[in-house]
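Changelog-adjacent note: as of this version, every example in the card shows the full chain rather than a window. The one below runs 424 residues end to end.
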Amino acid sequence: MKTALLLLAFVLCIFTAHAQAPTAKFDNLRVFLDCQTYCDSDFIKRELNFVDYVNDRFEANVYVLITSQSTGSGGREYKLQFEGQGKFEGIVDTKSYIRQATATDDEDRKEAIEKIKLGLLPYLLKTDKAKDLLISFKSEEQKNDIATAPTDDPWNFWVFNLNVRGYFSGDKNYSNNSLSGNISANRVTDKMKTSLSVNASENNNRFGQGDEEFKYTNRSYSFNNTTVWSVTDRLSAGGYISAQNSDYNNYQLNLAVTPAIEYNFFPYSESNNKYVGLMYKVGPRYFNYKEETIFSEMEELRFQQSLSLDVSLNQKWGQLSGSTSYSHYFHDFDKKRVSFSGYADIRLVKGLSFNVGGYYAIQHDQLNIIKGTVSDEDLLTRRRQLNSNYDFYFNFGIRYRFGSIFNNVVNPRFNGGGGMMYFY
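Full-length structure tokens:
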């Protein structure tokens, strides 16, 4: 009887303590930022400190997916997609903005902040914090500072880029230096897209010293043009023109004219999130070689066709992209290539994600391989392309995160203390 009374008293104490505990207010918005393009997450956390940022999307009640695509002027179009979870299930919205090619990172991240604020507003209005909201509008002076699209474009949508890059490295036993340059022009409208580029590069390498010193130089020059017209919201037609001179590939001239047609199984307007495209290409290719090939050719004209399927998905469960293609020459169907490539970053369960990527090609279409024996220097330095019936790479990773789901704190101390300089 005494034991029963003690047990009853213990239960009453627990019940009383629980009844006296203060009622918790509705939690802050818990936001998961899924940046599948560049975004300054530290800046976002500093500027928007009225929400909780979580490391796991399953713990969030607002999921934010940020993606981007390049624009015709060399800038980027960013899309911010908001999706409510839990209590906010069914509340979805999309905000977008254009980062101009001349914009600074600071201008870009400030624009992102404004769009995130607008996107979070419908969710904030359903919380206790709604009573603390202040609404204001920009003054006329601030409005006038905002850049607007010109009504008259003197460049008619053409954008030009000039680029020169040099690289030097070495020690007593090895040195490498390279110089490259590029000129490109692009014009993109809703109905047509065209791009032209001219590239030149020289790469010099030295191995060893003295009597055992070995040097070689590789030069490459190329011209590329791609032009495509919009036929429907899922169909495009156009083609490629390319010309190349390359020491490594044994090309005095590799000239190709390749008409192409592409069908997208989804409207192109949805390509930020999903793209499944089927492309067919066919056309002539002229080769003039620097040295005689393994097929005893110094020049030849061949016709080639290819079919490829490309997939790209950006969803809340992760990213998935891949491509598979088949091509062959008409003069000999055994001169063919089959390739597969892909990348996936998948969140399997709470805290656990898996990523894998790779490429594999079965290649029997190397018409350009130089005739003769392969020297040790060729094998070790890879100064010229060698015969191989396959090519591949593969990588994978697994990440598991546990512990606190919140990551609101920004602490940049010692971030720049590595003592190294990097140039991009």
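Structural remarks: The two ends are 80 Å apart (CA to CA).
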